[in-house]
């Protein structure tokens, strides 16, 4: 066994490195997750045993910025790899993915609309047009919708839908509408779809709440028919973060949940809630007695943007520690945290006043104080710690092709490489 090398900035952290997987530190911190992933299968009586969720809290590398289609993103690959694991035990299982990628801020958006891409009109406020997360509407009838086509893309088959939303300290009414359609017909008037309903928001509603409207359960027709799900504002102020589309039994299967944002950092001010990231990512994901909330592992991958923004190391450590502790509390000490260190695809970060290595060391330090439920997986270590231009360029070229010099983000190949690395840890 090896020890994480001492950091000249913060001292030695004594995290044991896995002999099986390069870059995995303190694998015993995943013991809680490892002890419950068998719940992805079914009992001898044929009933689901609760399922096992993995939630990814990260930035653009994990959201899918720079990938060709939604199906080329990290989260989609991770979901498929988990679904194909032996822990799934040949059950259909709830796929549990969130579609959170928008084609454009103006309808009908750019590119193909049959790839799980949300499009929305100009009546929403959003921090980044490239991200559907935290759409906010206050005064007009904002609309956004997604077209799902299980005929041409079987992975888009859906049997249940969870709407993810948040709110300010004001009242608001969100209207959802499901319409079956042979092709993407664009926006439609709320209330004319096959199924419709409302979600009332108020000051007590935290961000990141998952709402399973009764009318959206048991959508067996969507296995063979394309459909459009539309979200619109009908009163007050509403937040809309996205929607999870499940396929199969919610009480079984490996559920890979996307809670990432383009541009996410520990000081993410996307929400006006005081407790922004925590409210968004953990309060709606607790062990509340519902099968769909059984999350065995939270992946926290916040690092690159903190380095770019030069967030003070003390603040960075305080914030990621708070997120880990929130997971521990919300899960009643039942969930594990896997801190993921992103691959360095821009060598300039190594030369910043607070260099990239300092943020890596900070992550190790936080994990070292929580070894009973935290592990660290360094994709950066896995690809050899490329800190110079020559080293980074090596991974931009054949045979690796993890990135391009212009994008500084994972390519399609990089995204699947990242997902395969993390899946190998989660399926040990």
Helical region count? 10
CATH superfamily of the largest domain: SGNH hydrolase
CATH fold title of the largest domain: Rossmann fold
**What fraction, in percent, of the residue positions are helical?**
10-25%
Number of strands: 19
**Would you identify the CATH architecture of the largest domain?**
3-Layer(aba) Sandwich
Classification by helices and strands: alpha/beta
Low-confidence stretches: 1-12, 100-114, 128-132, 269-291
Average pLDDT number: 76
CATH class of the largest domain: Alpha Beta
Report, as a whole number of angstroms, the end-to-end distance. 17 Å
Proportion of beta-strand residues:
15-25%
How can the largest sheet be summarized?
6 strands, mixed
Q: Return the string of H and E elements.
A: EEEHEHHEEEEEEEEEEEEHEHHEHEHHH
Specify the overall morphology.
globular
Tally of individual domains? 2
Radius of gyration: 21 Å
Largest sheet, spatial ordering of strands: 3-19-18-17-4-16
């Amino acid at each position: 066994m090896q020890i994480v090398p001492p950091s000249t900035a913060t001292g030695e952290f004594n995290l044991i490195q896995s002999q099986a997987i390069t870059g995995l530190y303190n694998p015993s911190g995943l013991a809680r997750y490892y002890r419950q992933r068998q719940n992805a299968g079914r009992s001898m009586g044929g009933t689901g045993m609760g399922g096992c969720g993995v939630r990814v809290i990260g930035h653009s590398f994990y959201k899918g910025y720079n990938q060709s289609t939604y199906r080329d993103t990290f989260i989609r690959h991770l979901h498929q790899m988990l679904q194909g694991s032996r822990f799934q035990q040949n059950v259909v299982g709830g796929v549990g993915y969130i579609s959170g990628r928008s084609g454009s801020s103006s309808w009908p958006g750019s590119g193909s609309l049959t790839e799980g891409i949300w499009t929305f009109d100009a009546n929403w406020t959003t921090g980044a047009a490239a991200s559907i997360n935290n759409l906010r509407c206050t005064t007009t009838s904002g609309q956004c919708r997604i077209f799902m086509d299980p005929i041409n893309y079987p992975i888009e088959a859906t049997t249940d839908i969870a709407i993810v939303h948040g709110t300010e300290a004001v009242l608001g009414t969100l209207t959802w509408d499901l319409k079956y359609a042979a092709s993407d017909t664009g926006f439609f008037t709320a209330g004319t779809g096959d199924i419709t309903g409302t979600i009332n928001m108020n000051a007590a509603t935290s961000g990141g709440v998952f709402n399973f409207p009764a009318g959206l359960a048991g959508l067996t027709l969507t296995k063979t028919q394309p459909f459009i799900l539309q979200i619109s504002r009908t009163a007050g102020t509403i937040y809309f973060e996205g929607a999870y589309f499940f396929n199969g039994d919610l009480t079984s299967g490996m559920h890979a949940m996307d809670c990432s944002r383009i541009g996410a950092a520990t000081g993410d001010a996307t929400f006006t809630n005081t407790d922004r990231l925590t409210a968004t990512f953990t309060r709606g994901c607790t062990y509340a007695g519902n099968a769909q909330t059984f999350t065995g592992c939270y992946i926290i991958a916040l690092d690159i943007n903190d380095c770019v923004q030069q967030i003070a190391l003390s603040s960075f450590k305080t914030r990621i520690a708070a997120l880990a502790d929130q997971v521990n509390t919300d899960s009643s000490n039942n969930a594990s945290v896997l801190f993921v260190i992103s691959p360095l695809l821009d060598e300039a970060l190594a030369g910043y006043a607070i260099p990239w290595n300092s943020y890596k060391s900070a992550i190790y330090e936080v994990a070292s104080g929580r070894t009973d439920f935290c592990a660290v997986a360094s994709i950066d270590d896995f690809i050899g710690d490329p800190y110079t231009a020559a080293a980074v360029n090596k991974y931009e070229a054949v045979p690796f092709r993890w990135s391009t010099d212009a994008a500084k983000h994972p390519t399609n190949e990089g995204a699947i490489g990242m997902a395969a690395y993390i899946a190998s840890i989660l399926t040990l």
